[in-house]
Sequence to fold (654 residues):
Amino acid sequence: MRELRYREALREAMLEEMERDERVFLMGEEVGHYQGAYKVSEGLLDKFGERRVIDTPIAEAGFAGIGIGAAMVGLRPIIEFMTWNFSFVAFDQIISNAAKIHQMSAGAIKVPIVFRGPNGAARQVGSQHSHAVAPFYAGVPGLYVCQPSTPRDAKGLLKTAIRSNNPVIFLEGETLYGVKGEVPDEGVEELIPFGASRVARAGTDCTIVTWGRPYYVAMEAAEQLAGDGTECEVVDPRTLRPLDMGPIIESVRKTNRCVVVHEHWPYGGPGAEIVDRVQREAFDYLDAPVERVTGLDVPMPYALNLENEVLPTKERVIDAVKRVSYAK
Amino acid sequence: MGTPLPDKDDLLRQYRSMMRIRRFEEEAARNYAKGKIGGFLHLYIGQEAIAVAAVDALRDEDYIFQTYRDHGIALARGMSAKAAMAELFGKDTGCSRGMGGSMHFFDVERNFLGGWAIVGGHLALAAGTAFKSAYNGEDRVTVCFFGEGSTNIGGFHEAMSLAGLWKLPIVFVCENNQYAMGTPLERTSALKDLSIKAKGYAMVGDRFEGHDVTLVQQRIGEAVNRARTGGGPTFIEVLTYRFRGHSMSDPAKYRSRTELEQRKQLDPIQVVRERLLELGVQESELEDIDLEVDEEIDEAVQFAEDSEPARREVMMSTVYAEEGDS
Fold:
């Protein structure tokens, strides 16, 4: 396998799918001539031209809606939000239209569309630009929600998303774009199915469930804990809707302990959903209450020292694992 | 520019189509009062000429979007009164199998792409189907209806803005029935003449009365032709009036009896009826049509009444579309 950066993996997924299917196009702010605000779409305009790589004005509700309308009649749009923070002005389009059309029309109309872009905090961009949005979308029937942590998952899931016949919320990360990881060689096509949690690290002592940016924090914590003799099993759900609890429950039955680590706020959302399901589906196996390490319950401040406190840290993960292990 | 003389047969067909909508809506109101129909029910009574004219200005393959006041356009486009009424009754035989209700009629076979119930939310979708026409190099046109109440919300602006920028093959038809729910235009808009807004998006604007089906067909037809031949979008303001409240729960106390009576002088059905009589059609011929329409609507109510209720399996199986074949 080769190594690619996360952004390159995403770019390859779009490039391959656009080559494969002429109905696929990319639309968003600065995706074309500027080569992408975060360079994910770099080079795509040169390859596919202005018909299929379409720069828009700053009008998320407008171009999200145009994408949905185009999808209703057979095109397969990829709509890029420069960041997911800006999806809020298109929220109605996603919730009231994209997620509802198939059922409202009794199955007569499909909406094969991908909304993608960076999610969560970057670095010191303040409260309006640091939202981890998964809770807003993962609770909505009619949507799929992907949040890949690694370049390989980013590519394989995006390809699946583009081929899906349903609206897909695809959450990337600005701080993940530069991350390098193994991706199957050119010519080796890998489609990663939705609803397939991945065991990222094997262990016997405590299960850590995590995804997105904190995945790397949790992996580091697991390495450090291993040095002290505690082997954590790390499970990455990869898609938050559908949510594959199988490998998570299987792991908890083995380790009898569980810590869920995520960037979004603690109130509700996929993090709380996973905890709820673990206590219901593995109640008899738990030796301690399930813990969570989350983004703190505050709007994101600007100051770096405070931002670092808000986001999940290795230390908080280690503390949580020790607490559920009664080692602290 | 004068209105061309209408063909008698076309006009008779349009008269029937308008009567079908009127009787359907009246019967829907009755069944709402009886508790057979739930939720919201917005009637198209008074505005029938617009839907009927627009359908005649379009080809079968053209796309149509409408707001939640959607029974009229669906029927005009050819939906059976049975499928429409059964939807209101929440039955499996309804046009949306009981998943949509009054506000969410769909008839994809006839390219009627829905009744939409978030004000201003469907304009961008309509721009999206027009975008698809342009993307594929098809000469299909999209017509998007909405009320004057939609013209103040952001969804209107962004859809108009992008349609103008990309010269999409779309006709935006604002059915200005004077009231956004209970609030008259002068209290919601700084502009009296909404068609001026077209200029802000480098579109052609047009504005006319909506009670004469022939005139409406001609003027919407011009815009449709412009869109089809690469001339870009048009924004049309059609001045109209609804004879009932905003919905069944609205007694319409915000307008005077006198105003309503004045507007009823311009009842589009009366207008076409008088035109037909002038053209030598016998009163009895029109009465025969009325009776046939009555019968069709009565049958629709009976059909709705007798149909099976909406099904759980449809609800559960339509949350997500099946994957594959992509």
Observations:
- The two ends of chain A are 41 Å apart (CA to CA).
- Chain A has twelve helices and 14 strands.
- The first helix of chain A runs from residue 6 to 20.
